[in-house]
Amino acid sequence: MWNVLLSFSGLVALIQLLFLPFFPESPPYLLLQKGDKAGCLKAMKQLWGEGNYHIEFDDMLKEKAVTKGTRIMNVLEVLKEPSVYPQLGTMLLLLLSLQFCGLGATANLQESIIPYVSLGVAISELISTIFCSSIIDRFGRRILLWGGYLLMALILVLLETSLLLSDKFLWMRYCSVILIFLFLIAYGIGP
Fold first, then answer.
1. DSSP states of the chain as a string?
2. What is the 3-state secondary structure (H, E, C) of 105-146?
3. Do residues 177 and 116 both lie within one domain?
4. 5 Cβ partners below 8 Å, 6+ apart?
5. pLDDT digits (tens, 9 = 90+) for 58-73
């Protein structure tokens, strides 16, 4: 019944995908990134109900003023900045922990290939982290979440199909591995 359990995460992603368009953008994102003051206030009222949110709005304006002169760093500049080493260490620890998650066993592969699959999982996570950090400011979180959940749902349907067919066609096991990599990239870019 493990394949039903695997499909359950696709169901959750599909439910989130269906409801995501009905939620507003994040008020700080609207104000700080987009400069949309009216949209920010509208999102606050939609998320928190009717009320006076001038204190929160003023705090966001102060944050915008403080960060106005701050330059957004690219990935290489972040890697050279010593103050972010603890956060990078935490991220690397999480990426390395994926080596022990057992995704290689999901595709029912030979034991000799599983270390390569584990390496591929870590590389997929690294690719998604770098790619997401370079496009999140351009597209915003909402589009990345929506697109990520859509891709994840589609990939999980294909993964389930490939796992069901893997006993008939041995090459489908390798398709399953590729789909696992794509799922991780979609998850890393979106949710």
1. -HHHHHHHHHHHHHHHHHHGGGSPPPHHIIIIIS--HHHHHHHHHHHH-SS--HHHHHHHHHHHHHHTTPPPP-HHHHHH-GGGHHHHHHHHHHHHHGGGS-HHHHTT--TTTHHHHHHHHHHHHHHHHHHHHHHHHHH-HHHHHHHHHHHHHHHHHHHHHHHHHTTT-TTHHHHHHHHHHHHHHHHHH--
2. HHCCCCCCCHHHHHHHHHHHHHHHHHHHHHHHHHHCHHHHHH
3. yes
4. none
5. 888 888 777 776 666 7
Domain that holds residue 81: 75-187
Where a domain ends, among 22, 39, 67? 67
Structure tokens at 6: 């695997």
Q: What is the pTM of this model?
A: 0.49
Dump pLDDT digits (tens) for 166-188: 888 888 878 888 888 888 888 87
Instruction: Assess whether 89 and 2 both reside in one domain.
Output: no
